[in-house]
Amino acid sequence: MTGTDLTQMQQPRFAGIPTFMRVPFSTDPSTFDIALAGVPFDGGVTARPGARFGPREIRNMSTMMRGIHHVTRFNPFDACRVADIGDVPFTDLYHLERAHDDIRRFFEPVFRAGKLALTAGGDHSITYPIFQALAPREPIALVHIDAHTDTWDSFKGSKFTHGAPFRRAVEAGLLDPRRTIQIGIRGAQNSDEGWRYSLDHGMRVVFIEEFDALGAAAVAAEARRIVGDAPVYLSLDVDGLDPVFTPGTGTPEVGGLTTRETQALLRGLDGLNWVGGDVVEVSPPYDPSGNTALVAATLMYEILCLLARRASSEHR
Asked: Which EC number(s) does UniProt give (predicted)?
């Protein structure tokens, strides 16, 4: 396995055509091991829109990313071929389920070719069609970092909003609830439906108070116990972090994770059997500073390291 062409990374950060982390652009799965992709879609939001602008701003802020991880000394770009495959091209943007079909069709050839994908959203509804594109032979495991369980049933006539992707995935036989852990859950609700669904179906729900009591290392160990050696996907909603760190999101909840806690948690998940991941719900209009997108890009880099270590180990 050869590494990534980093010619663009040698240019000034303000120059060149922006791609995620300044990797090459490619739509040919034979040229990459890990795809970085954008899904500029927020048709599934139930409150504040704007996540459609997330991928563009995350790309912009991802120019700040570098190669070598300062803790592990691992360089994901040396270990794997990483490419930006662009954004999902929507043909029916204003019909939620048809837009999800566009997302599914975009990712199907990537997963069919045996590649890994790391995606920038977009609202959290996009994870369900990505699961559909994965088309696993058996339900996959999930590490889910979020303020919300996203296991509600329907909202104002739709079952496919950003509050429902993991319920739909369980129903479709794509997600194993007993190998699912949801971390950072908090915030008063008008209904306990989501919490009840997750708990009643065997998901391990780590409310933020338990996270505080245990710490990042112990929660990471619990996630490893829950997931085991199953194929696992990582889904990170930036509202899992406290809005002090990620104000640019549609459904902020006070009292969340810090950036350092989130990085420590992710680093504790190294070595799992990753099949993909996403970072979602960045809404740049609510954060003129760009800090939310910078946090998202940095966490995408942490996740990229996890995926690349897994992919490179398989080719040794």
From this structure: 3.5.3.11
